[in-house]
């Protein structure tokens, strides 16, 4: 019998966080269940820092709000937590403290809102006997086992609007306009935004690009009298035989992805200008993609995810991720989500063991892009 549940939001913020929280809270209240929220993700769970959530006060009027009313953390791997002792940095498994907090607080279920790293930790907690239900969040749309994550559609809409605006400048000044969008290891945002915005070239992490082929596409457009082009580049795109463009390496602890990507848009713009003779300008969209109010699609999807997660808890179905499968709400075991990434504490990263959902050549989005002539640098 579920009486008391808690929510934590983890990882980078995404439009729809609050809509999911609201969906859980409202469904919980309908069933006479108390709802709480840990502050700042897994870090709040470690510190046992939480607040009461209800639709009359703390969770009121949040459907349209971006961000998360309970915060989030991007670097709190409690299974390998970074600490400083005697002036030295050490890493410790503090997950048992979290488990003890959950037991002492008498929470019957923890809802984890996050991406692959968040759900890897959720799976690890489930092995420790915690009742966990995950909800797939990431604007990158790369969580395994679901057809779509909340936040993705809003990010694409923002990128599409940017492309629309860049089109006018590119056409007016006969320039190559490059737009760098998010997408560390998956090109869903870049590819869908390119299709929606009518871009000419899309460079994504799944397909190492040949810059000469991209330049050839621009030259072909010039021959047809089109002296401008729009190029969308995912931040994780890389040239054939090359590597991803890294801005810096952070020290946020072991078991999290410490590489901060950035700069590939500037790199591509410079190379295309040299190869084609056209002026090229890059715009890096950055955090604009994940900020602000969610579009209608994400408000509805997030609400559906939140309500479904609470329903699963009432049914006693734990250790699962709520997903969209064949267009319908469903759930899959967290074991399937993490794939071969079984090591306790290893939460994220583009490794052979990670189960990140990437663009494949047989996906309709890829086929559509090829059919309408979008150059993918190959």
Quickly give the CATH architecture of the largest domain: 3-Layer(aba) Sandwich
Tell me the count of domains. Answer: 2
Number of strands: 15
Sequence stretches where pLDDT stays below 50 over 5 or more residues: none
Mean pLDDT: 94
Task: Look up the CATH topology of the largest domain.
Answer: Rossmann fold
Task: Give the biggest sheet.
Answer: 7 strands, mixed
Using brief descriptors, characterize the structure shown:
4-stranded parallel sheet, Rossmann fold, 378 residues, 7-stranded mixed sheet, 2 domains, alpha/beta
Q: Would you write up a description of this structure?
A:
The protein has two domains: 194 residues, 3-Layer(aba) Sandwich (Rossmann fold); 145 residues, Rossmann fold, CATH 3.40.50.460. The protein has eleven helices and 15 strands. The strands form four sheets. A seven-stranded mixed sheet has the order 3-2-1-6-7-14-15, with helices on both faces. It starts with a strand and ends in a 7-residue tail after the last helix. Helix 1 crosses helix 9 and helix 5 packs across helix 6. It is of the alpha/beta class and 378 residues long. The mean pLDDT is 94.
